[in-house]
Automatic annotation (TrEMBL):
The keyword Zinc-finger does not apply. It comes from the Bacteria. InterPro entries: DUF3667 (IPR022134). Keywords: Membrane, Transmembrane, Transmembrane helix. The keyword Electron transport does not apply. It comes from Chryseobacterium oleae. The chain crosses the membrane at residues 63-80, 112-131, 138-162, 168-190, 202-226. This is DUF3667 domain-containing protein.
């Protein structure tokens, strides 16, 4: 077969060797301002709720895939957190000497991407309750949270870098900004014209984080019972 491309799938019959140019092209593709992660970050900073609603209901090609987005941004935060040894972690459950609970907490600290998705499920549960009159199912709300929690990871990353260089404790400020961003994004997603939307978003966030933490503590207690 002498053709350069397959007649069926149009893919190279013999792909070119991977070299520096290939790597640069892939990085450029990921960071592309028109459809890549930088474009997604910009859109989620300007009109988060509206862009995510558009992604779910109309056009899913403008933003990067939500699960990939939250995993990549969580990885960025994990690397920065480990590099600068930031004490105030994004998610932290105090084990108070409980080895099982500490083991779970260490897993959470080492797998922020998966932990955020799990925590997102708890927040999605409360959002589904508070915004039950809106026609969004649980999984669509989870997609909403993948984008928002991914942006939170980037915000914490920025503050972690500044704290790492300046030694000023800034993570509490970052947490406050994240709470505001979450309420603004979710409120804009459901109904930006109603003040109640922003309040219900904030309450859902707090309840979701609380139930996530309580679930970890219960899981730790069950593991202790089983081990004994």
């Amino acid at each position: 077969m002498n053709e350069e491309f397959c007649s069926n799938c149009r893919q190279n019959l013999k792909p070119k060797r991977i070299d520096g140019h290939y790597i640069l092209h892939e990085i450029e593709h990921v960071l592309h301002f028109d459809r890549g992660i930088l474009y997604t970050i910009r859109e989620l900073l300007i009109r988060p709720g509206e862009n995510i609603r558009n992604f779910i209901s109309e056009n899913r090609s403008r933003l990067v895939k939500p699960v990939i987005f939250i995993i990549v941004t969580s990885l960025i935060y994990t690397l920065i957190n480990h590099f600068f040894h930031i004490e105030q972690s994004y998610i932290k459950i105090d084990g108070a000497g409980d080895s099982k609970l500490n083991a779970i907490n260490n897993w959470v600290q080492s797998h922020y991407g998966y932990s955020n998705i799990i925590m997102g499920a708890f927040i999605a549960f409360w959002l589904k309750i508070f915004f039950r009159k809106y026609d969004y199912n649980f999984f669509e709300i989870l997609i909403l949270l993948c984008f928002i929690l991914g942006m939170e990871m980037l915000m914490f990353s920025v503050f972690a870098i500044v704290e790492g260089f300046t030694k000023y404790h800034l993570m509490q400020i970052a947490a406050a900004i994240v709470f505001v961003y979450f309420s603004w994004s979710v409120g804009q997603f459901f109904d930006k014209g109603k003040v109640a939307s922003y309040f219900k978003a904030l309450v859902s966030y707090v309840l979701g984080m609380l139930t996530f933490g309580i679930s970890i503590m219960i899981l730790g207690a069950l593991m202790n019972l089983i081990s004994h």
